[in-house]
Amino acid sequence: MPGPLSSPVCLTVIWFLSWSLRPSRAQIRTDEVSGVQYGRLGSNVTLACGKSQTGIPVAWHLNHSSALPWHKVTSDGSLVLLHVDHSAQGNYSCYDNRGLLLHSVKLSLGYPPGLLSISCQVPNHTHVRCSWVESVKTFLPAKYNASFRGNGQDWRPCVLNVAHRHCDIYHPAFWQPIHTLRIIETNGLGSEATYVQFRLHVLLKPDPPQSVLVKELEGYSKRLIVSWNIPSSWPVHDAFPLVFHIRYRPLGSMYWSEIFSQESPVVIFDALAGHLHQVQVRARDELNSDSQWSEWSPVLLVQPWEVYTTPQPEEDPEDFFVPFNTKPETSTAKSHNPVLDDEGNLGLVILLVLFSVVILTTVLSLIFVVWVRQRRRDHVTKQELNSMVKMKSMPI
Ligand SMILES: *[C@@H]1O[C@H](CO)[C@@H](O)[C@H](O)[C@H]1NC(C)=O
Ligand SMILES: *[C@@H]1O[C@H](CO)[C@@H](O)[C@H](O)[C@H]1NC(C)=O
Ligand SMILES: *[C@@H]1O[C@H](CO)[C@@H](O)[C@H](O)[C@H]1NC(C)=O
Ligand SMILES: *[C@@H]1O[C@H](CO)[C@@H](O)[C@H](O)[C@H]1NC(C)=O
Ligand SMILES: *[C@@H]1O[C@H](CO)[C@@H](O)[C@H](O)[C@H]1NC(C)=O
C-alpha cells in the first residue's frame, strides 16, 4: 500500500525542499570559516570537528586537499597537528562519511607577544614620543593599548600609531620626576604588558639646530661666521632658552675647537688661513643641565676668505671687448682700431664744442660792448638835441 510520502508529488516537494535547503545549510557552514583558530608554532594544535558525534569517522581537508601535515585524528574526530610549522596554516574542513561539510576553521600560527623594547624621545617640554620594537616576532595580528602616568596620577592614553610602532604623549606633567609608560600587546595567543619608567627632564633632547650656515668674512683670512636657527620643534619663547655648542676644525685635523653661545651668529677668530674647515652646531636646554645635547647638525665645509693671488692684475681691454666681436679669429686688430677711433672722435668733438663756446662768448661780448657804446652815444645826441631845442625856445 503506497503511503502518502511515496506519492510522486510529495517526493518532488521533498526533493525540492532538500535541494533548496542544502545550499543554505552549506552557507551556514562556510560562514564558520571566518572563525580563526590561533596556534603556537612548534606545539601540537587540536582542531575540533564541530559537533560531530563520537565514533562517526570524519575526513579532514586542508585548503580543499586531503594532503595534511603530520597529524593524528582522535576518536571524537578532532585533528591533532603535531609540532606545527608555518606550512600547517590554512583552511581546515572536516566532512562526515557521506561527504557533508561538518566544520571549517582557519588556522593561523605564531607566538604570543613578548616584552617590548621601548624608547622615548622628548624633543621639547610638551611632547613625548615612545617607540617600541618587539622582542619576539609573533607572526600574528596584534592590538596595543598604551597609557602613561606620573607618580600617583591616573593613567592617560598614549596616542597610538601602530603602523609606525609609536605613541605620542602631549603635555606631560614635566614637573613629575618619574613617569611610567605601559604598553599592552594582545594577539590571538595571549597578552603581555611592558612597563618602562623614565625621567622627562633627563630624556629632554632638542632636535639639531636648523639652517646652519657658515660663511667667510671678507678681508679676514682667519675668520668664519656661523649662523643657525633654533630647531622648529623647540618653542620660540624666552622661558625655554637653548645653549649652542659650535665645533670646527681644519679638514683632516683630529682636534675640534669649540665655542659655546646662547645666540646666533658666532664669529670664529682662529680659523687656519687657506684651509677648508668642518663646522657643526648642536643645542641643549640651557636651564636643565641633566638634559641631553641634540645630535650635531650635518657637517658644513667652508674656507676662510683669502686674497686671490692668481695673476689677473687688470682687465685687458682686448679681452674686455672680445664679446662684442662677431669674428674672433680676425678681430684683435680690427676691433682695436675702431675703439681708438671712437675715442679720438670724442676728443675732437669736445674740442670743437669748447672752441665754438669760446668764439660765441667773444662775439657776444663784442656785440654787447658795441651795443652799450651805441646806446650811450644815442643818449648823448638826444641830450644835445634837447638842450638845443631848449636853447632855441629860450627868449633871447
Ligand atoms: C605532541 O604530541 C606528541 C605525540 O602525541 C607528543 O609526543 C609530544 O610530546 C607532544 N608535544 C607537546 C609539545 O605537547
Ligand atoms: C580560506 O577561507 C577563507 C574564508 O572563507 C577564504 O577567503 C580563503 O580563500 C580560503 N583559502 C583557501 C586557500 O581556501
Ligand atoms: C593553505 O592556504 C593558505 C592561504 O589561505 C596558505 O598560506 C597555506 O600555505 C596553504 N597551505 C597548504 C598546505 O597549501
Ligand atoms: C586600554 O586600557 C585601559 C586601562 O586598562 C582601558 O581603560 C582602555 O579602555 C583600554 N583601551 C583600549 C583601546 O583597549
Ligand atoms: C614639540 O615637538 C613636537 C614634535 O616634533 C611638535 O609637533 C610640537 O609642535 C613641538 N611643540 C612646540 C611647542 O614647539
What does this structure look like?
Helices cover 25% and strands 34% of the residues. By secondary structure, it is an alpha+beta fold. Among the domains are: 23-110, Immunoglobulins (Immunoglobulin-like, Sandwich), CATH 2.60.40; 116-203, Immunoglobulins (Immunoglobulin-like), CATH 2.60.40.10; 210-302, Immunoglobulin-like. The strands form six sheets. A four-stranded mixed sheet has the order 1-7-6-3, with helices on one face. Strands 8-9-13-12 form a four-stranded antiparallel sheet, with no helix packed on it. A hairpin with a 4-residue loop joins β12 (159-161) and β13 (166-170). Mean pLDDT is 80; it is low at 1-33 and 315-341. The structure holds 2-acetamido-2-deoxy-beta-D-glucopyranose (NAG) (5 copies). One 2-acetamido-2-deoxy-beta-D-glucopyranose (NAG) is lined by residues 33, 63, 90-91, 106.
Short précis:
The chain has helices at 8-31, 200-203, 317-321, 328-393, and strands at residues 36-40, 45-47, 59-62, 71-73, 79-81, 90-95, 101-110, 116-124, 127-134, 142-150, 156-157, 159-161, 166-170, 179-187, 190-198, 210-217, 220-229, 242-250, 257-261, 266-268, 277-285, 300-302.
Q: Proportion of β residues?
A: 25-35%
Give the termini distance in whole angstroms.
199 Å
The succession of helices and strands, N to C, reads HEEEEEEEEEEEEEEEHEEEEEEEHH
CATH architecture of the domain at 210-302: Sandwich
Helix content: 25-40%
Q: Largest sheet at a glance?
A: 4 strands, mixed
Q: If you consult CATH, what is the topology of the domain at 210-302? A: Immunoglobulin-like
E-strand count = 22
Bound molecules: 2-acetamido-2-deoxy-beta-D-glucopyranose
Taken from the alpha-carbon principal axes, the silhouette is elongated
Specify the CATH homologous superfamily of the domain at 210-302: Immunoglobulins
Low-confidence stretches are 1-33, 315-341
Could you say which structural class the secondary elements and strand pairing correspond to?
alpha+beta
Mean pLDDT: 80
- The CATH class of the domain at 210-302: Mainly Beta
- Count of DSSP H/I helices: 4
Rounded to the nearest angstrom, the radius of gyration is: 51 Å
- Which strand order do you get reading across the main beta sheet? 1-7-6-3
